[in-house]
Amino acid sequence: MARIGYARVSTIDQDFDGQLARLKTEGCAIIRSEKVSGGSRDGRTELATVMEFLRPGDELVVTRLDRLGRDTRDVLNLIHEAEQRGASVTVLDPHVSTRGELGHVVITVLGMVATMERRFIRARQREGIERAKAAGVYKGGKRKLDYERVKAMRDGGLGPTEIAQSLKCSRIHIYRILQKV
């Protein structure tokens, strides 16, 4: 039986040192971490690796449920997948595990709270964008990838999968860019 830790932060300017330290303190022999949004599983390669690695008797450990995901359905699907592999999921804050029957209820409620929080964040973000547009200072989000570089890579003979691997992004992101250029 292995305790496998998973740490996640949403943006590049955040760090997960606190999560990593806590997971080490809790005895996680293996810890995977990534900087990516928890709104969906898109681009969460480390989480996919952890899920594939889980074996019967293993325990997936996260510091808070929102580190696993911010969508109730996605969190419950991840827990279901872990259990299908014979593994359990433990959240450290508040401490709850899927090993007990009550743990499932608590995790479901926490997942619903995380979903609500994500909706509140989006609403505040939309309000801020509308205020910035009204003030004439909104310029839109920054592009994370250079569209011309993606186009040049395609024109150079690379396929979407190879481009995505090279740029360390999702293939879906590449398809969307290629539709625009």
TrEMBL record:
Organism domain of life: Bacteria
Resolvase/invertase-type recombinase catalytic domain segment(s): 2-136
SUPFAM superfamilies assigned: Homeodomain-like, Resolvase-like
Gene Ontology molecular functions: DNA binding; DNA strand exchange activity
Gene3D superfamilies given in the database record: Homeodomain-like, Resolvase, N-terminal catalytic domain
Active site: 10 (o-(5'-phospho-dna)-serine intermediate)
The keyword DNA-binding appears for this protein: yes
Entry keyword set: DNA integration, DNA recombination, DNA-binding
Pfam family, one: Resolvase
Protein family membership: Belongs to the site-specific recombinase resolvase family.
Name of the featured protein: Recombinase family protein
Organism: Plantimonas leprariae
